[in-house]
């Protein structure tokens, strides 16, 4: 089932907000602005409705959720207040907003039921994969980070852009999933720092119960003042699950890929002339991980393609030659919501809401 891109193109709205003296107020205003969308996403999200909420009502869930709330509230009190404000403004219960923002930290601990053909079919609809693809390159002629934001088709029409001015005079812009903190996808700020994100699949034994959530870390990253500050914010947290961060500094013309895991483990790869493709598996941090055939196939296909120009890079992200595991996804479960092109030399972020090979740009946003 392929889906028309016109509906998702019309759905992406840019909301200017702030400055707000209180983080709760910032979250409240975003929640109020997109209340209908957040309510719709919460009602239609099968992972929330069929897995997270039923688990949250069980006795074994209580200590896990309490530990997550306590650790993240203590580490990031301002961002926690922003999360509570989002719930208040949207009219969605706080528990639902917490579960949406910490789904990756909770899902591994939900007991797996015995499978039947019927349950396996339902599980396909409940897929929580968010497989993204990135092409990074820094050479004499260009320095770019290009990113496909891939998610479950349930996210179509449930995303927006938040451009927030902060009390200290800085600002950030973030592609945001309805009900979640900015941003679990990509964003940038007026200090010249931009980033895109790739999920990674550590095995259960690599995951820490009650650790810091990825959404809180990436929200904090939106306020980084430099590349070094970005690394400190990423690598000093006791993350529960781990993540892949593609960091861009337009001031120093540098791009880094940083892979993290629990117990404060991380690995840094500096991108140079050799194009660097990252899907959804660890590439340089030694972590026990689930073998993801989708990611492996995209990695293999990207290695066959040229990345000698910006248009060639966009063509990689628009490639669908592999019908089972295309780089550019059009359903039935996963969909490329948009493509972001971060151009370091032009200091812009371009957002394309159709196949990037077509070159149709919805937004061109200045970074600083």
UniProtKB/TrEMBL annotation:
<feature type="domain" description="Peptidase C45 hydrolase">
    <location>
        <begin position="140"/>
        <end position="357"/>
    </location>
</feature>
<dbReference type="InterPro" id="IPR047794">
    <property type="entry name" value="C45_proenzyme-like"/>
</dbReference>
<dbReference type="InterPro" id="IPR047801">
    <property type="entry name" value="Peptidase_C45"/>
</dbReference>
<protein>
    <recommendedName>
        <fullName>Peptidase C45 hydrolase domain-containing protein</fullName>
    </recommendedName>
</protein>
<dbReference type="InterPro" id="IPR005079">
    <property type="entry name" value="Peptidase_C45_hydrolase"/>
</dbReference>
<dbReference type="Pfam" id="PF03417">
    <property type="entry name" value="AAT"/>
</dbReference>
